[in-house]
């Protein structure tokens, strides 16, 4: 069993920044690819970014790639999502996820975190 716990969400004005953290416990953190997903009100959950065991990254779109950065710190068993230049359309619950393979896809996720709310006001 792997347990994932997100933190760092909150309310921020458009153009601001947030850094999300996901702390993992229960199994070897380095054995999993990690991803960040988000689910906006009334919409399906979607991939934001993913990172492999070796540090290879993938972003959902060019617009996200230019503003968001995923990283991991194996020593702390933690994955991060740095979000800059936030827009109202970024408002969503953000979920950390662990996958046994890369690239991470919603269909192959092994473990989900509980989610953290990000609200961007205009």
List low-pLDDT spans.
none
Straight-line distance between termini: 40 Å
Q: What kind of oligomer do you see?
A: single chain
Helix fraction bin? under 10%
Query: What is the number of helical segments per DSSP (H or I, 4+ residues)?
Result: 1
Average pLDDT level: 93
SS class: mainly beta
Q: Estimate the global geometry from the Cα principal axes.
A: globular
Count every beta strand, where a strand is a DSSP E run of 2 or more residues.
Answer: 11
Please provide the ordered H/E string of secondary-structure elements: EEEEEEHEEEEE
Major sheet: size, sense and barrel closure? 7 strands, mixed
Strand content: over 45%
Description:
The longest helix has 4 residues, at 62-65. The strands form 2 sheets. Strands 2, 4, 5, 6, 9, 10 and 11 form a 7-stranded mixed beta sheet that branches. The protein starts with a strand and ends with a strand. By secondary structure, it is mainly β. Strand 7 and strand 8 form a beta hairpin. Helices cover 3% and strands 52% of the residues. The mean pLDDT is 93. It contains 1 helix and 11 strands; from the N terminus they run E-E-E-E-E-E-H-E-E-E-E-E.
